[in-house]
């Protein structure tokens, strides 16, 4: 981490440059060792302060709120909200009562959604990146086209999907029912069980270009000679991918999958724009569920408790993931 | 290695932070007159779009500035954001001086203590409580407490019907009872057209209709002490009747189950459905190309056919209230502004522009409000409209029960049977969420 070396000519406080050539050096204000070690920290300080201000402080407030009975009666003067102990957490994890049961359902839906969406995004993104590796006419155009879903503003993209997924006037049903004649009934995509599929498709459509982008970048660092050597040895496309591409991409994939996991698990915009205020049970992602539990019911203590639980879960998953992937690499 | 782990940790913290939200501020300050020359005003979206609202309100605000020297900063807030903005303002103490609220939120917002209570003294400063319609004041806060707002624009529901489709089917009069309504609806259904249209995924609209129907069955969603009674037999019957227009009577297209953005108004204007229950829908119909002569307006049906009180109510009291934030730094100016907005003159100008009805009785005499359509709305407000429950949990009720009704419509649309037991079960779950 601290590999930056401060150049010896760093101006001491006061801005005077040390005399050039041969002259005796002025004694620095701080010992050389501290200056060398300290500068990187000094440079990091603004970022660190902002990090505390923007990320950690709200998190701390969220944790504080989770121990309070912060309902509509106290939001005007929330420092007066009574201490609730672990009550908010108890309600959130009691799976035999409706609140806990709904949270558990939402959690399971989110897990299934995340695994499928991240898996599909990674698979499509990696496949596309590998296919785009060799130069051919129109490659740049195709690459740019692939990135469009990632570049579009989320709201505009998802609201367009919500129009396409409408039962009576939507493009999706027009193709499935009117043009291909696959079913006679017009299925609902934004209500009931199908809403899970709709959400999955839209979320994957939105996130696979990111996987594509990262893997494309990762591929640039694999030396062409490895492929040439493999080709001379008679390795086909599939073997080259398996034995050269994927192992070389491992560090990239490690970060990519983690980031995709966290983004997808926490995704709020897609379900919110797609289903507006009340997501169907089959597509009730945990972030939107928490939003409902605090903003719609005005019980911010309960919503914060759920957020804290979510935070702990994600921390745990991430820690285990990093531990496992690092150990595998080290062994 | 270390570097990568640190990078991963930084990434992790950043990503996790999105999971936890926090609020700032807190602590309620009392109103003052520290800043007597300006006011901030959050208006709700009443016109076709935000720009239309600005165009309607700006000249009036200039008039106010000319008379009082107080400059009003206007922001028109879309409905999808308004409640969250108000909650954020309540929590942070950084809000506007004066704001519009949906009248059904009155009691919920009143419970936060963030809004100025309208005591007799405050009412006197704007010309007295008696100037306002009783039903409208009743929807400005919990009974027995000083209202949290004053009524600004009033509305009620009416039955809109397509004259040509009625004529074609040989129907001479709009239905007055629900039996007639269903019978007429069936005659109008067929060939891809439906007798009735609704918005199954619009939570508020579901609540407005189910509440009135529940009252017609002698039920309510809250008892007199304010405790939720969602499984009251009358409430269950009311919800079931609303779903049954689709599930059992088949006079509503299944696709309406996912409507939430006024698609039912478009369907009505384009002749796909023959009847609609809505508040002041005229300007929207016009924007979809339907002229005023093409549709008729009648009172919403009731069990007996004669709207009144008790089990013959036929609309909720719809409307917008005007509230003052308790911690305003221009209290006198805010009261002056409320007086201005509720004056006979401004009530006539603004309600005429928005197609609503003045909340002030004397302003209703203006000829602009003497049209057949507005007279139906006015009559309902004066004689047969009932406010939604004025309890602190009203907002939770709208979300929980509104969502339950949305889910029941999804069941009905998928062709599954919607029994009384199923309705009761969903309402039980909703009540458990409200707690």
How far apart the termini of chain A lie comes to 23 Å
Oligomeric state of shown chains = heterodimer
The chain pair forming the largest interface, with residue counts per chain, is:
A-B, 63 and 60 residues
Largest sheet of chain A: none
- What's the overall geometry of chain B? globular
Overall radius of gyration of chain B? 23 Å
Q: Give the strand content of chain A.
A: under 5%
Content of β-strand of chain B: 5-15%
The total strand number of chain A stands at 0
Q: Can you identify the CATH superfamily of the largest domain in chain B?
A: Periplasmic binding protein-like II
The CATH class label of the domain at 105-327 in chain A is Mainly Alpha
Q: How does CATH name the architecture of the largest domain in chain B?
A: 3-Layer(aba) Sandwich
Give me the count of strands of chain B: 12
Main beta sheet of chain B: 6 strands, mixed
Low-confidence segments of chain B, given as residue ranges, are: 1-28
What fold name goes in the CATH topology slot of the domain at 105-327 in chain A?
MetI-like fold
Q: Any idea of the CATH topology of the largest domain in chain B?
A: D-Maltodextrin-Binding Protein, domain 2
